[in-house]
Amino acid sequence: MGRTAGPGGAIHVFVLTYNSIGLFAEFFDPDRFPGIALHIVDNGRQPVPAGLADRVVHVTARNIGCAGGVNLIADIGFRFMDQERIVITQDDASYGPADLEALMAETAPGRVAGLFGPFFEFSCFGLHRDTFATVGRFDENCIYGYSEDTDYKHRCALLGIDVVSLGRSVEGGNRSATLKKDPGLDRIAYNQAYIRLKWGESRHPLEAARHNMQPPFTYDHPFNMEQIPPTFVPLSNRIKEVYGEVTELPSETEYGRFLEANGQGGEDGPG
Questions:
Q1: Could you give the CA distance from residue 29 to residue 208 in angstroms, rounded to a whole number?
Q2: If you write DSSP's letter for every residue of 82-104 in order, what string do you get?
Q3: What is the rounded distance in angstroms from the CA atom of residue 174 to the CA atom of residue 157?
Q4: Do 114 and 88 contact (CB within 8 A), yes or no?
Q5: What number of CA atoms fall less than 13 Å from residue 44's CA on the CB side?
Q6: What pLDDT tens digit does each residue of the chain (271 aa) get?
Q7: How far apart are the C-alpha atoms of 239 and 63, rounded to whole Å?
Q8: Contact 232, 222 (CB under 8 A)
Q9: Domains located in the chain, CATH noted
Q10: Which of 161, 116, 115, 165 shows the shortest CA–CA distance to 136?
Q11: 7, 45, 136, 191: which sits with the fewest CB atoms below 10 Å from its CB?
């Protein structure tokens, strides 16, 4: 059984940042968030503002993308820190203390709670360790960012996990800063093509959502192969084209680096 909160009942909030930690520093006022334990995963090896330096729990060796970053955070939060529920967000999202409390209240083994409206749930969301164990890792074949959330939502539905939105407007809440600052990371069409290969066409009732490749999709099994469970994440040539001849997912390599940096020698849990 994991712990539901940190010391003093704090909510564990993990921020994944690639190129906008300065934007997050402008937003984050520790006096406004006295009830959280903040952990930053720097996925872009950025200069960190002095006020946030002690909140950085890991700096990746290279960009492992949104899916890889979330997987790494889940490993740190659930396996190393032994938390039961955590909030995962990004450096360009904005929210208040009440939003984080609401996310924690709605997060359960059978439910992922997203703060923002439809299609943006995973910009700031609560995740339970049992959900992560049931659905598995986010698909790191979605290179850099985009479509890893639609893949996960479809897998959640197939495995009986609800993804709910608290209905917060995305206007002003999600600033999409990463691609604006670095358009070279844009793999939207590339990742959507992968989702189409993996899950078929979108069956969403809204045309705009179908155009954006939102779930539900045609297939109930990855690549329309009944013997493959929804949890499956392949170590494909897509990943190797970016990261070389790797033998594990980039997030798994980074979690090993995290454990070594924390003196664990490959063993989970604090010493």
A1: 37
A2: -BSEEEEEETTB---HHHHHHHH
A3: 24
A4: no
A5: 19
A6: 455 454 447 999 999 999 999 999 999 999 999 999 999 999 999 999 989 999 999 999 999 999 999 999 999 999 999 999 999 999 999 999 999 999 999 999 999 999 998 889 999 999 999 999 999 999 999 999 899 999 999 999 999 999 999 988 876 555 555 545 555 556 899 999 999 999 999 999 999 999 999 999 999 999 999 999 999 999 999 999 999 999 999 999 999 999 999 987 666 776 4
A7: 12
A8: yes
A9: 8-261 (3.90.550.10)
A10: 161
A11: 7
Report the distance separating Cα 58 and Cα 256, nearest Å.
11
- The structure tokens listed for 38 are 């903040």
Instruction: Using the structure block, give the residue that is written with the tokens 């520093």.
Output: 25
How does strand 124-128 pair with strand 111-116? antiparallel
pLDDT value, residue 7: 44
β-sheet bridge partners, residue 87: 13, 126
pLDDT digits (tens, 9 = 90+) for 122-135: 999 999 999 999 99
Number of residues written out for the chain: 271
Q: pTM of the predicted model, to two decimals?
A: 0.92
Tokens of 171: 């206007």
| Joined tokens for residue 45 | 């090896």
Give the whole-angstrom CA distance, residue 145 versus residue 143: 6
* Closest C-alpha to 106, from 55, 168, 157: 168
The per-residue pLDDT for 187 is 81
Q: Other CB atoms closer than 10 Å to residue 114's CB: what's the count?
A: 26
Give CA–CA dist 233/95, Å, rounded.
31
